[in-house]
Amino acid sequence: MLFDVIHLTEYRYSNPVSEAYVEARLTPPHRKEQEILAHGIEFSPEAGVSDYVDYFGNTTTFYSMTLRHERLAVTNRMTVRTSPHSQPEEALALPVAEARQILASSLTDVFDYLQPTPTVPTGGASMDWAKKFLRGSLPIGEAVTALNRAIYERFAYKPGATEVKTPLSTVWKKREGVCQDFAHIMLSVLRTAGLPARYVCGYIETDGPGKLVGSIATHAWVEVMLPGLQWVAIDPTNNQWCGERHIAVALGRDFEDASPVRGTFKGSGTQKMKVRVTMKRLAEKP
After folding, report:
1. What is the C-alpha separation between 14 and 3, in angstroms, rounded?
2. Residue 37: phi, psi to the nearest 5?
3. pLDDT digit string (tens) for the chain, length 286 residues
């Protein structure tokens, strides 16, 4: 499939600000299931930018504005061709206990994605779900699919029910939230069970046949590592393995690592942020 994506993040200030600094993790990685045909990030007002690759492999664009301004806009544009995700059936058929043992021998590759973070703690309610859905004797593919379905069925998708800083314990208690919360729940359960997993921030086609649930902003899902150091992507918000309608942009242990746009400003007022994403499917040329 071929897509054009436009992602606008706009800040408006109650009073003019004198400085603003932004980190943008908006450069999609080239992967076997996504080919980046065109990509560019625009900042308004214009200022110098520099790129670096962060610890998790995300190309990060740093923007620095030191002149007074009342509005700041970040526009991310891309054209991407996606293809079906291939599933490593042999690895998915391995029992959870065997997969865990094999992955433990590659600790340097998986260590970061097994650890709790302030945003994604392990244990607690996640321990009960890990014991229930990720039993050692179950094939890992079957177990992860069952966990994904449980989150979809037992948590209500409700925009506005949570905020970025809402603790995971609150999400467990209220059983409602958005894609970011569902990804964090799944990460917590997987890591509690000793299975390395990472957070993915990206875009999803919410229109078209087989409507997918997502907001007008970015979407979030999870990648689980299998033996052979193979990552497979699964979307608890939509109860499915990820496919051609998902575009990955940034990766990390949680939302904090993979936040698409974050920054700070110097001024006496407040700011309001507006985010809008449009993802349009294009007709392939014959």
Report:
1. 36
2. -90, -30
3. 999 999 999 999 888 888 889 999 999 999 999 999 999 999 999 998 999 999 999 999 999 989 888 899 999 999 999 999 989 999 999 999 999 999 988 888 889 999 999 999 999 999 999 999 999 999 999 999 999 999 999 999 998 889 888 999 999 999 999 999 999 999 999 999 999 999 999 999 987 666 777 766 899 999 999 998 899 999 999 999 999 999 999 999 999 999 999 988 887 778 888 999 999 999 887 6
Instruction: Tell me the C-alpha distance between 8 and 195, whole Å.
Output: 35
**What does the block give as tokens for 24?**
């943008």
Whether the link from the prior residue into 45 is cis, omega within 30° of 0, is: yes
| DSSP helix/strand/coil, 226 | strand
Q: What is the pTM of this model?
A: 0.93
What residues have CB less than 8 Å from 285, skipping those under 6 apart?
none
Question: Which residues share a beta bridge with 22?
Answer: 63, 263
Crossing angle of the two packed helices 179-192 and 140-154, in degrees rounded to 10: 140
Residue 32 CB burial class (10 angstroms; 0-12, 13-18, ≥19):
exposed
Instruction: Measure the CA–CA gap between 250 and 264, rounded to whole angstroms.
Output: 20
Both tokens of 100, joined, read 């865990």
Contacts of 41-50 with CB under 8 Å at 24 or more apart are: 41/74, 41/75, 41/76, 41/77, 42/73, 42/74, 42/75, 42/77, 43/72, 43/73, 43/74, 43/75, 44/71, 44/72, 44/73, 44/75, 45/69, 45/72
For the record, the structure tokens of 202 come out as 């990206």
> Cβ distance 185 to 151 under 8 Å?
yes
- The kind and range of the H/E element at 166 are none
**Residue 180 — φ and ψ, nearest 5°?**
-60, -45
